[in-house]
Amino acid sequence: MAEEYKTSSAENPLNVINVYDLEKEAANVIPAGGYGYISSGAADLYTIQENIKAFNHKLVAPRVLQDIAFPPDVSTTFWGDKLTSPIIMAPVAAHKLANTQGEAATAKGVSRYGTIFTISSFASETYEAQAAQANGQPQWFQLYQSKDDNVTRQMLDVAKKNGAKAIVLTADATVGGYREADKRNGFTFPVGLPIVPYQDGVDQTMDNVYKSAKQALSPRDVAFIKDYSGLPVFVKGVQTAEDTELAIAAGADGIWVSNHGGRQLDGGVASFDALQVVAKANRKRVPIVFDSGVRRGMHVFKALASGADLVAIGRPVIYGLALGGSQGVEAVFKELENELLIAMQLTGSHNIEEVKATNLIDNRFAD
Amino acid sequence: MAEEYKTSSAENPLNVINVYDLEKEAANVIPAGGYGYISSGAADLYTIQENIKAFNHKLVAPRVLQDIAFPPDVSTTFWGDKLTSPIIMAPVAAHKLANTQGEAATAKGVSRYGTIFTISSFASETYEAQAAQANGQPQWFQLYQSKDDNVTRQMLDVAKKNGAKAIVLTADATVGGYREADKRNGFTFPVGLPIVPYQDGVDQTMDNVYKSAKQALSPRDVAFIKDYSGLPVFVKGVQTAEDTELAIAAGADGIWVSNHGGRQLDGGVASFDALQVVAKANRKRVPIVFDSGVRRGMHVFKALASGADLVAIGRPVIYGLALGGSQGVEAVFKELENELLIAMQLTGSHNIEEVKATNLIDNRFAD
Amino acid sequence: MAEEYKTSSAENPLNVINVYDLEKEAANVIPAGGYGYISSGAADLYTIQENIKAFNHKLVAPRVLQDIAFPPDVSTTFWGDKLTSPIIMAPVAAHKLANTQGEAATAKGVSRYGTIFTISSFASETYEAQAAQANGQPQWFQLYQSKDDNVTRQMLDVAKKNGAKAIVLTADATVGGYREADKRNGFTFPVGLPIVPYQDGVDQTMDNVYKSAKQALSPRDVAFIKDYSGLPVFVKGVQTAEDTELAIAAGADGIWVSNHGGRQLDGGVASFDALQVVAKANRKRVPIVFDSGVRRGMHVFKALASGADLVAIGRPVIYGLALGGSQGVEAVFKELENELLIAMQLTGSHNIEEVKATNLIDNRFAD
Amino acid sequence: MAEEYKTSSAENPLNVINVYDLEKEAANVIPAGGYGYISSGAADLYTIQENIKAFNHKLVAPRVLQDIAFPPDVSTTFWGDKLTSPIIMAPVAAHKLANTQGEAATAKGVSRYGTIFTISSFASETYEAQAAQANGQPQWFQLYQSKDDNVTRQMLDVAKKNGAKAIVLTADATVGGYREADKRNGFTFPVGLPIVPYQDGVDQTMDNVYKSAKQALSPRDVAFIKDYSGLPVFVKGVQTAEDTELAIAAGADGIWVSNHGGRQLDGGVASFDALQVVAKANRKRVPIVFDSGVRRGMHVFKALASGADLVAIGRPVIYGLALGGSQGVEAVFKELENELLIAMQLTGSHNIEEVKATNLIDNRFAD
């Protein structure tokens, strides 16, 4: 029941040493059910752990005498939008699990930082309340498609009306992953999901929420969404060369490499390892957004050097939200930017284009 | 002594989060000697542990836009028998160690689930009592051959009379593995083994039980069993290309890849790694059953994608039997099926044939 | 504040079993802030840990019947200076954090041992007081260049006047690494840095100290320093083939392979792994000094066999200083020499040239 | 002092589950100094640990239908001597550290088992007392050569007179390894070393004992020993192809692959890995004895399958001696034989020649 769920309502400056600390601290202010839902992954947690460890499958080498005055230029431009850095906000369901202020505070912090905010279909706040915090920054809409095309059209209408600049079709969650923390906690959503007309969310398990959305997604859905919305479409959840081709052939304007934060298929490849495969298959035809496992500025660096154009973060932002509201959100982005700047300076990278051109050192099968 | 051995007699619904939990919980209801016998492996436990870890020597990649309505079709057909799924029951000795209801309850749960039950020569229940629970589902008979061919003929007669559809010749246990838990516990069977005329089992060590069966097995035995029974014969315990050829040349109708659950030869290859070798050598000439280390629906998936036609489980079912009787048995099968269904959906596999055609990602020498 | 910082003032003989012990014991005599500064590394500590583990990426094989009377000859000659062994003192900032006697005691211990002492720009003692302890042994000067060329000239004048035989340009610290221990401790220097005219150091963070030095270093700086000083110049912090070429092309007389003890770029290669790359690129054109991670005589051996001409140690010496003053410093060098002698004897190496000619066994991707 | 050293004087039957257990139990009956000397290894203990782990760098595969009646034939013949099994006794210094009965009890247990006993130069018992226990079984003499050839001749005279059938020249201990346990314990020998005329041993460190023997060994020494003694000579401590050639060229009749139980050179290759290299270089020209790290019958199996003709064990026997005297010694050999028999049966090996012809599965760079 919503009334029994007492989570944080923090709004304060947040001092961040690293985002791992935030994960531990957030466990003290988010109720166990919500925290389990946010933090955990599928089954044996192999893939969720590999998501982070895999960043050391590629190593960087420091470079010297590269004539860089600190700080290098971390800004980037994407589809005409100037961003503070290539670090953007991933779609995450139900921010009110972490902070009573919900997505409005997250959107505000993200805008203040100056990057893209992705609105989740399963947000616990209305679309309008999130859009109201855009403050000139771009917002994208992550779509869980309805079984009923007319309902999907309604959702796209709302997004367009509120200024969404792209649609992100989540294609890797046509059934819920086997998330044992939720089963042990008997977790159901204590908050509503006002954006999706087909599901109110309250007292529902994540499995039921997923089941109420369209499951049998196909290339036709990409074309349908693109045609109806007139917006560029990302296919999110791509991890293979085959699906890269499939998505591009279906008209996708971008590929979003993700394994849903290790929440869906356990025993699957780490997202960073999949990025290498997808980037090679893509041959720079469309932009790539990368997520899953990003906890360090160095992770952002390595993803950019492996073919990503933008790098999305999710859980760390939600922990920042829990601990500091919109200010906590902004602090998380600033922390990762700060770490990225140091990595850029010490690798002799004057700007993001040089980061993307960096050769990493293969360390795949090392101890 | 049988009268001192107080094990579970549970018969109740069983809620399963994962089968690892059951292993821990079963330790509370099965006496230490019986539990040690069931759960442990040979010597340093290297191979028993590798059996599970080895499933991550191959990784899966999620697939998207594959147009699958959940659930995909998990059913399969084997030699004309329609099965709920390719998950079948492996032969396991002396189920009464885990539950006073013994093999009758296991057979009942397996039939209710709708798959193959393999009756062990070293069952603690009569053949007839197990066959009585078949309920239209296929049953196979796992043979520990007698030193005396006439006794072997008697055993095959019983199996045929009671409807066995195949004989599974256990060829990897011509001596007991070096199982230290049994030595530390001073374990002897507290229950009788009514199927084998050459051994009553009571107060015997496993070593003695094995020694009373035929040790010097050869290809001639495969031919002998096949000729006399008129039934298809599996050779169980094959782990090499050489033995694949040997078994097929001897007339085997199927190969059963197994390292006896890591109970026999420590320092040997993981069963899942051996499956890759056997499947390649087999070149689809005969069907392959796989066991040893299966604890997840994803393990079933990976075995099927590596050449197995059926995947047998043993210990998890015995823990389910200890904790819930026939209902516990059924719950274990349903749990693994549920996990397998999620894996199928998220890898875009509409049915078991598509699972078997999946290309896995080599991760053999990774961290 | 300097007056609140109570560190060791030990001056006594030191019995060393191994230098790992010293690291633990030093934690008891150095205040937490200073100890954190000295001992810790960047971010997740991946690279600092790999620095040590990486020595087992190459293994040695014992050799027999090589006709060596113990001890073999561990001495070496570098640019005309006869050294007790190829083990030299790396530049380390602010020795007074560890012992009130500071760099004067370190320099004294190093001279008594009979090897090269490298004076740090960020020493907590005057140049003159360190030079006064040279006692006929060579001293080098590690330069953190000033943003103002005239100030750099002043510093080089002091070094020349006091007999420096080489300049070591630190090129890998144009911004401070992300050192979390310092952030958690709120560490600022409690002692002054009298050598650098552009920064007094007191109550400054390491970040601020680094920022006050020149950040945008380029090949022109190598040429400038070499021309003005007339001394041979090392470029310190080289880890790649590209930078090896760059440094040599800029006129460097030697390459100093280092990742700054894992204090700068986390997620980067281990220094010993980088040494393999640099040595190959160098093709013996210029001498190589190696540091980062050296804790054993065997590490010295492996570095020499991988292309290093000299091997520098830092932290272990500072722990020796904390625990025994100049005598502790000398004891650390003697301990590593002793371990090196055993390694030489058991690998059949009569002298340092034979150590350098040793073929190591690749173990890069082993467990 | 000898009078203060109170060790075990056990003489009783010993039940062995595995020899790792004995190592733990022996720590309770052997004084700390002696136990440290016996059990520990060099420096970081990397190589001593790798010695055991390395056996899983090669895996075995079970074989089926090989027509073997248990038990297979574990006996072997070496240079005309019929042995119960290829497991022999390695030279170990000062058995009286473990049991007041010393080498006499060990020799008795080894003879009763029926295999080769190697008498150490640094035995704590007279040569004659050990020879008296031979009981028809072969004995070999491990030589630490004297700096004085006449003294070496005296030692060889004693060995010949007492029936030694081979001389084992220890070539890998021309200086003591860096054994920290001994340094921490301040260990000196509490017992005398009556065989070596150049060193009485009492109150000496191992370093001093080694130093009193000849250090500058060369191929000439092999020829000298062989010529003078007229006995076949093993060179012990060979780990490389180069030294295999060197030893054979010098006239060695056998190669003894060993890294001295990980006591000498840390950071060196595991002995089992070196065996692969030596066996390849040897091309079956001379017999190979293998030691270092053998704790399981499976280890014996893998060593034989990798080119060894005999496999020597040391520490486990000394623990057996401490816990059960001569009966404990015999029990250790029987335990390893028992484990070896199971491995032979389950891999389809009828005899030792078939074990030696087994193809192992490369697992060098696995997790």
TrEMBL record, chains A, B, C, D:
Residues where FMN binds: 91-93, 120, 142, 170, 236, 258, 291-295, 314-315
One family name in Pfam for this protein: FMN_dh
Catalysed reaction, written as an equation: (S)-lactate + O2 = pyruvate + H2O2
Residues in FMN hydroxy acid dehydrogenase domain copies: 11-365
Active site, UniProt feature: 260 (proton acceptor)
Gene3D superfamilies listed in its UniProt record: Aldolase class I
GO molecular function: FMN binding; oxidoreductase activity
InterPro entries: Aldolase_TIM, Alpha-hydoxy_acid_DH_FMN, FMN-dep_DH, FMN_HAD, FMN_hydac_DH_AS
Sites where the protein binds glyoxylate: 37, 144, 179, 260, 263
Reported cofactor(s): FMN
Domain of life: Bacteria
Keywords: Flavoprotein, FMN, Oxidoreductase
Family: Belongs to the FMN-dependent alpha-hydroxy acid dehydrogenase family.
Oligomeric and partner information: Homotetramer.
Protein name listed in UniProt: L-lactate oxidase
Lineage, highest ranks first: Bacteria, Bacillati, Bacillota, Bacilli, Lactobacillales
